[in-house]
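job 3f2a | input accepted
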Amino acid sequence: MKKNLFWATLMATLIMAPSCSIFHKSTSKTAENTVEVKKEVVLPTDREDIVQPVSAVYTSQDISKGIIKGDWAIETVNGKSAVGEKAPFLKFEPSEGRVYGNNGCNVINAEYKYNPQDSTITFSYLSSTMMLCHKEGLTDMEINLALDAARYYKCELSGDDYYLTLYNSKKEPVMGLMHQNFQFLNGTWAVKEISGEEVNVPKMKLVIDVEEGKLHGNTGCNVINGSLEINMESANSISFQAIAKTLMLCPDENYETPLLVALEEAMKARPLKGGKVELLDSQGKPVLLLERTSDK
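job 3f2a | predicted structure (296 res):
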């Protein structure tokens, strides 16, 4: 996603002059009081665990510190449901002082400054691609104007989900966002159950890299590779795509086919206690139970 946003941003920068921005107030190029966060990612291999990218992890401790980072799905704008041609979202990068995303039609990016001490936030230097947008739900301009009006923010935990609310100068809500945090999926996993049936295949492992959107593993017989797609439209929505496998001849009795079917059916992911993760289908039925392992 970052690569696509980079090229989209480059095109937008060439197309739009600074005078075309809807923002008029900031000339600062740095983000004061921004929390510096370092990233470190190790790509998954057969012999290597993933080092979690710290900037993408969001916790209740971050809320208490007023930190804003990571991926957020835009849920409401000025009290209306944020439904567009595409699922609108924002990705905050505090180490860069920038925010990237989609306003329901066009790719956008901007600079942002926030201060946890007084819960203030401002966005500036907004740029956007110039695709012709059909009227479907909110307009892209409504999202842009809401970002322009934002002056204050509040983060809170509700149930298992994190929410961010942006307020205007009168402290009226202009945008509501929900955090998309799938970092709990990062790492190496042993498959413990498939569709409720207990599995005991020591070689059956999955390695997931959320930042790179990659899946790697072993069915107990063949090596598999694929991609992880995140759906910004609803909480905890994921899917595994383009799964390919080697063509070793497997014993008649094995769990390879059920595993591949379960991966294709998986639509949601949720963390459980004890270092476990549950993947569910579109009906909310568990299709895979995974347990974190240190085995290489």
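job 3f2a | Confidence is low (pLDDT under 50) at residues 1-55.
job 3f2a | closed
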